[in-house]
Amino acid sequence: MAAAPSNTSDLCLACGLCCNGVLFKDVELQPADDANKLVALGLPLKIAHRGKQSLAKAPQPCAALCADNRCRIYADRPQRCRQFECALFKSVAAGETKSDQALKTIRTTRQRAEKVRRLLRELGDTDEQLALSLRFQRMRRRLERSGFDESSAETFGELTLAVHALNVLLSSEFYPA
After folding, report:
1. Could you state, in chain order, the average pLDDT of each consecutive group of 10 residues for the chain (177 residues)?
2. Dihedral over Cα of 147, 149, 163, 15: its sign
3. Which of 46, 50, 127, 155 is the most buried (most CB within 10 A)?
């Protein structure tokens, strides 16, 4: 069992859900972000066009996320990353939630995300470099096009319930109100 975090930044190092493709599918760059510098630091960007405007986004899971949940470009991370604080972090910082309870919530959430990953792998999706929500949507479309056999229908049903359970927890504990 992990020790209780000594401060809220330790909580982030125990979590990483905002960077690993569980909470978000991408991070939209802001005008103050230096896209060229981020690319030079190894952060891949995707460019989306809305009319005459171009939006750069960093896909999740973040390429700068290390195995220990540290950001290897922390000093140069995008503005959205600098500004984001999940609801659980804010609750611990405000003294409304104890650190040990927050760690339990993080463990439960990570277990639910791993169950979703496992079920996606069982259905043939091994693309760990794509956000969970996008992987689930892609799998749903693939199965709707190709049809379900009994085994894949059962696994997809279990996957759908697992995604729902994960999303309920994310909505109640992590997304800001």
Report:
1. 56 95 97 95 91 90 96 97 96 96 97 98 96 97 92 96 98 92
2. negative
3. 155
